[in-house]
Amino acid sequence: MFTGIVQGIATVVAIDEKENFRTHVVELPDAMLPGLEEGASVAHNGCCLTVTGIDANRVSFDLMKETLRITNLGDITPGSLVNVERAAKFSDEIGGHLMSGHIMTTAEVAKIITSENNRQIWFKIQDASLMKYILHKGYIGIDGISLTVGEVTATRFCVHLIPETLQRTTLGTRKLGQRVNIEIDPQTQAIVDTVERVLATRDATAASLSQALAEKQG
């Protein structure tokens, strides 16, 4: 599990391409290295990856075909920057919201509005069916960052970013058309799915009663 509080920005220094498989190497910030071991989990742009090799501050991770397909990690090249966060411990402060590191889809940067102390970024989500889980003032994970949803339309949503977030994460460098990873808040998803099931059951029951009544009267 992760908290959505990015601990640093890492540079991808090498990529080893294989068929339907990739190993990439990043230079982790020194503060993230103590206690790091092979098999540990580190989120890259919100996607949970497993450490497969450590050479000083150069740390290797393997990415499967599905990861490359669903996330924006398939877009990166040597020199790219990624948001990184180590897996949370039980004693850690949850400054954001609990995140699993399982990316559900990506979204395209559709509009950027910049003011003196704020930046508003609008996103168009790739899988429109997930918009029902994106609610005004709800939580969402964007490239591993725990954020609060601002305005929402039928196909788009926005977030408001303070200077601290822009400085400490890669969102400050995102441009129009670029893709970001999206993790839907699991609690919001569970609530929406539960309500839908309850309403569907209620409608089915009502339809059955109406049919039975009609047959009886007929």
How would you characterize the overall build of this protein?
This protein has helices at 65-70, 163-168, 186-217, and strands spanning 8-18, 21-27, 41-44, 47-55, 58-64, 81-86, 105-114, 119-125, 139-142, 145-152, 156-161, 179-184. Helix content is 20%, strand content 39%. The termini are far apart. The protein has 2 domains: 8-86, Beta Barrel (Elongation Factor Tu (Ef-tu), domain 3), CATH 2.40.30; 105-190, Elongation Factor Tu (Ef-tu), domain 3 (Beta Barrel), CATH 2.40.30.20. It has 218 residues and is an alpha+beta fold. Its EC number is 2.5.1.9. It holds the Pfam family Lum_binding. It catalyses: 2 6,7-dimethyl-8-(1-D-ribityl)lumazine + H(+) = 5-amino-6-(D-ribitylamino)uracil + riboflavin. Keywords: Repeat, Riboflavin biosynthesis, Transferase.
The gross shape turns out to be globular
| Structural classification | alpha+beta
Output the CATH topology of the largest domain. Answer: Elongation Factor Tu (Ef-tu), domain 3
Compute the gyration radius: what is it?
21 Å
The CATH class assignment of the largest domain is Mainly Beta
Name the poorly predicted regions: none
Quaternary state of this entry equals: single chain
How many strands? Answer: 12
Beta-strand content estimate: 35-45%
Mean pLDDT: 91
Please describe the biggest sheet, giving its number of strands, its sense, and whether it closes into a barrel: 6 strands, antiparallel, barrel
Proportion in helices: 10-25%
User: What would you say the CATH architecture of the largest domain is?
Assistant: Beta Barrel
Structural domains: how many: 2
Distance between the termini: 59 Å
Strand order of the largest sheet: 1-2-5-4-3-6
What is the H-and-E element order? EEEEEHEEEEEEHEH
Number of helices: 3
